[in-house]
């Protein structure tokens, strides 16, 4: 959907013997879309510096405009959002959400609580991604949300309800974005009484909740937290513009380059995230350390370099489900079987990522065991096989499989093909240019 970049139907990557360089990361998707919505709900105007320019943020920007909330881009790096103070000027709107979970889930909660007549829909895959836990939680407190397609999934029709919320509950084991959505909408409900959100069952992807709470705080709303079980917003708190917000670089996007450094020599430095990041995915670097890579960190950068063959690991990746995909491909360069556990959420993301990952790693000659919530990857004894990798309209499939062109495993002469590389537009439209910049002349 992003118009900036024309990609061919496939990209061929020659084996790369060495990687080295510095990559300036695009803005964080998670921070960008949260900041846009909070700025739109706040009183006052917010200047956002370093917003991600990609399909996922375009759908949020488009939705805000359709809702009558004004914003403008003042230069390449700077947007100004004029907040509506909790009011939506457009009482009716039809909103295209692409495949952006960070847009549809938080918007569903905000629109249902504020009220109006809205439809939300997306690409085919969006209509297969669950939203029932969020809709149930909202309808239980008086929202009026209907499914216009299959029950439990978008598209949705939202009508004005009568919200009476003091305590609500939401399941946490399918997506943390449902809790994020309710948290961001909670100050709009907590006009006279405190509002408490209880999490039912295990909460997955916890660090994303920390991003939510951090950004809500910057917009003037504090949430009282009782572990990961319940969250309370006291009445009378309203979102107020903090003036200017700087968006960090995307820590999930950093994972491809850090892994490249760990596999292909390095050093590779990513700029835009570091020790001070609020994104849980910076902990991806710890997994690379466990695999034997050398990682150095500054306030706003991280650097990775290889120490020879990576060590296989067996670890829980529930806290970093997106960056974990990069470990599954890095496992091709490890000295044994690497197992990634507690990643059932992979099945309901851009594609069924457990199935897609297993299928494509096998094409390269790996032995893969795929379970309901885990994947084990044993690299082939010799070289990786030449392969054409399918990407399933999943940006992360395209980005992490570019690493299979690195020649850390004495692979010789096998070009690998990545089909439909344009899917990277979801979060990183210039990904293959950035990759070519560290891999030098590998694109043919
Ligand atoms: O809140 C967020 O910004 C996100 C939460 C995670 O989703 P789940 O909570 O569904 O695992 C993650 O996979 C997604 O890319 C972004
Ligand atoms: C799961 C992802 O996206 P979404 O925000 O649409 O859930 C992702 O970016 O890997």
UniProtKB/TrEMBL annotation:
Associated pathway: Metabolic intermediate biosynthesis; chorismate biosynthesis; chorismate from D-erythrose 4-phosphate and phosphoenolpyruvate: step 6/7
Domain Enolpyruvate transferase: 16-434
Compartments reported by the entry: Cytoplasm
Keywords associated with the record: Amino-acid biosynthesis, Aromatic amino acid biosynthesis, Cytoplasm, Transferase
Enzyme class: transferase
Binding, phosphoenolpyruvate: 29, 101, 129, 177, 353, 396, 426
Annotated catalysed reactions: 3-phosphoshikimate + phosphoenolpyruvate = 5-O-(1-carboxyvinyl)-3-phosphoshikimate + phosphate
Subunit structure, as described in the record: Monomer.
UniProt name for this protein: 3-phosphoshikimate 1-carboxyvinyltransferase
Organism, scientific name: Massilia antarctica
Gene (name only): aroA
